[in-house]
Every structure is written in structure tokens, then in C-alpha cells.
Automatic annotation (TrEMBL):
Species this chain originates from: Granulicella tundricola (strain ATCC BAA-1859 / DSM 23138 / MP5ACTX9)
Keywords, comma-separated and alphabetical: Membrane, Transmembrane, Transmembrane helix
Taxonomic lineage: Bacteria, Pseudomonadati, Acidobacteriota, Terriglobia, Terriglobales
Gene3D superfamilies (alphabetical): alpha/beta hydrolase (3.40.50.1820)
Chain segments annotated as transmembrane: 47-67
UniProt-recorded name of the protein: Uncharacterized protein
SUPFAM superfamilies: alpha/beta-Hydrolases
Amino acid sequence: MPRLPKPRRLRSRRPALARLTENLRRSRTFVGETRTRVTERIRRQRLLFTAILTAGLIVFALAIWPFTKDHLEAISVLQQVSQKPVPALIADLVSHPVTTQDLTLDTESGKVRARLYMPANNPNAPALIVLHGVHHLGIDEPRLEGFASAMASTGLRVLTPELPDIKDYHVDSTSIKTIGESTQWFAHKTGAPVGVMGLSFSGGLALLAAADPLYKKDFKFVFAVGSQDSMNRVAQYYRTNQDERPNGSTELLPAHEYGPLVLEYEYVEDFVPRQDIARIRAVLRAHLYEDKPAEATASLKLDERQKAEALDLMDAASPHTRSLIAAAAARHANELNGLSPGGHLRTLMTPVYLLHGQADNIIPSAETLWMASELPTITLQAMLVSPVISHLDMGTNPTLADQWHLIHFFALIMHAAETPTGRTPWL
């Protein structure tokens, strides 16, 4: 009988199970350690990304802060000029208390009354001159005081010198010299050229002072608001209600009586007989000064013929008055040319900023277009004709786009005032 093979002994499965268990344990340990390492790596990467992002935002914020600051200052100024409250956050960031000091400037031609607006605790703040327009209150005119104080509250030293002839409604060459010498005085006081802002006819005269070799080194920039390019063309506008633009089109806008009256007051001898000059001038002066009691008193001294003359002059739209304006402008054409920046701008190297109200009916906005067309590209820094303002007053209900354009323009002015060159590299 054949022998049967011996049955094979079954190997114990316990060692294999143990090895499997150990391998699973090691795998779990490896997975856990790997997960921990991956989690830590992700955490470090997130921290690094956050640090880089934070650093980038800080660098970006520092880089754009001058741009942002200039615009916040512009908002602050425009809110104050509009007699609206400045938002608290903006006020906290850019506003300073302001002190004022009445001064007498000793210039080559004599003493000039002036007022200095200073931001508190900043005696070396950047300097700006603001020239008043044709108004009998001069540097005491409330709108000018408010504007100068608003500019000073953003960190500027603001000087408002008084122009006696402009104050008495005379636009003449004497004021060019006063502007130049006042700018010299302030530049010497601050140790550097200063920005000069001229309102209305003073803006055109400031451009002429900046073009004068005697004064040009003291001007950092000129900011002309609602100013003339050609006095002859403005005089023509007063009798035609039209002002031609550089592109050949015509601006049509009825002139305000104020403009023709200033011209009549300047050259009253061309409008009435010699024996009537004193009495008619007194009436015109009181009318321009908005002094109704004085105007009534001056009118009582007129005889019937003189009353008719005065009434005729008050009506700038009458054909007779318009013919007299034309004759006076022709007679004084050379003098008016001497008060006109046109013809002096092509070689002007001082940076220039031009702002004009679209609805200005005292000096039409076409005048700013003429100046912009004549200035060298390197000289003209910015130009804006805005519906937000009229002559020197703020308008009502502007669009958001129009408000932004005006804010951005004023931001350029703030930047120019705070930089040594008076130019705006981030235009």
C-alpha cells in the first residue's frame, strides 16, 4: 500500500498580520507626518503671501499717497469755498488750524498792504500768493478771505497783497508792478520762488509780471482763474456779446453789466463831456461799490442832462453806449494791449495753470482757450473750462464728472504749490 504524503503544517498567520498592522501603522504615521508637513508648508506660504501682499499694499499706498493727499486737499478747499462742511475723515487727514496776520510789504515802489494766512505749527510751509479781483473790498472781500483760509488750511502759507488800482476798478499797468514786487518780497521772505494765483483781470496781469525779466525768477507758477488774454477782445465782447474762439467758432453769451461799467469807469472821460466827468464818475463809482446810499446822494447832484447820461451808461446794451465803448477801446488800443498776456505767452517758461467758468459773462471762457493756444506745451501744465463755476463763483447741481474734473484740477494746483518746480509730473 503506497504511503500517503504527510499533511503540510499550516504556517501561522500571526506574523503576517502583525507585519500588516505595523505597515498600516507606519503608513498612517507617514500620512499624518506628510499632512502635517504639507499643512505647515501651506501655512508658511500663506504667511509669506500675506507678508508680500501687505508690503506691496504699503508700498503702493506710500506711492499713491501724494496723489491721494492732493485730491483730499482739493476736496477740502472746494467744500469750504462752497460753504459746505468738510468730511470729518478728510479734515482729520489734511486740515490744519489757520492764523492770520496783517502785514505791510516794503517794496521798491512803496508799501503794500497785505494779509498772511499761516497753517498752525508749520512756519516753513510752501508759499502761495492769491491776488484779488476787481472789487472795492480788496483783500477784505469775504470770498477771497474764505478761499485764502481754505488753501492755508491744507498746509500752505498764503499771502494776499492788496492791489489799490484793481480795488478801485482800474485795470492798469501799475498793478503789474505791484504784483511783481509783491512776488519778489514773498520769494525773498521764503527763500524760494512762489506760486501766484490771480483772479479775474489780476490773473492776466500776473502772467505779464511773470513774463517780465525783472520778476520771472520769483514766480514758481501762475494760476489764472477767469482771466483775459486780450483786453481789446474783451472790450469788443462787451458791445457784441460775442467772443471768437481760436478754432474760429464764436462764443455767444450776453455780457454782464459789470464788465462794461468797469470799462466806462476807467475811461469816463471818453463817455461824457469834460464838465460832467466828476459827477458821473461819482455815480459810477458808488454803483460799482454797491453803495446805494452814496449812489443816491451822487445822483441828486446831477442835472437832467447828466441823469440821462448816467442812465445811458448804465444800459450797456443801448446802441449809443456800445458805440462809445467801441470808440474808447479804439482810442486806448495800445494801452489795452499792454494789459493783455496775448503776445507775451509764446516765450513764457514759467509753468501755467488755466481755469475758467464756462458761463463766465464778465471775461468769456474763450479767453482761456486763446491763452492755452499760445502757451508752449512745456509751459501749459493744465487747462479746464468748467461748468461748475461762473466767473469766480461756484455753480449749482454739477454732475459727478464735472465735480471730479474740478477736484482733479485743484489737486494739480495743490501738487504744484507743494513741489519746488511748480510742475505736475503725474499729469
